[in-house]
Specification:
The protein is α+β, with helices and mostly antiparallel strands and 90 residues long. It is built from two helices and four strands. It has a four-stranded antiparallel sheet. A hairpin with a 4-residue loop joins strand 3 and strand 4.
Length: 90
C-alpha cells in the first residue's frame, strides 16, 4: 500500500480505499456504524469495527478532538470519545 500526503480529494479517497482493501486482505472485513442517541448527546458519531474479531481495535470519530482515532469497543461504547457538555456554574 502506498499512501500520499496530497490534499487532492481523489488521492485522499484512494488512500482510504487502499487502507480498507488492506484490512480486507488481512481478514479484518471492516463494518461501518453510527452511534447516535442519548449516550452521545444525539450527535452522529461514525465508527468502524470488524464483526469477525471481537477483540480487534475500533476506529471512532472522537467528538472532542473532531478526528478519527483507534480505540477499543469498551472505550467507544463507554463514552470515552463522546463530547461532554460543559458544566454551568451557578
Amino acid at each position: 500500500m502506498t499512501t500520499t500526503t496530497s490534499t487532492d480529494a481523489g488521492a485522499l479517497w484512494q488512500n482510504l480505499a487502499d487502507a480498507l482493501n488492506s484490512l480486507i486482505a488481512a481478514g479484518q472485513f471492516p463494518d461501518f456504524h453510527d452511534l447516535y442517541g442519548s449516550r452521545n448527546h444525539w450527535q452522529r458519531q461514525p465508527y468502524v469495527s470488524t464483526p469477525i474479531h471481537a477483540d480487534a481495535p475500533w476506529v471512532v470519530f472522537d467528538l472532542t478532538t473532531r478526528k478519527f482515532t483507534v480505540s477499543t469497543r469498551e472505550q467507544t461504547l463507554g463514552g470515552e470519545h463522546h463530547q461532554r457538555p460543559s458544566r454551568k456554574r451557578r
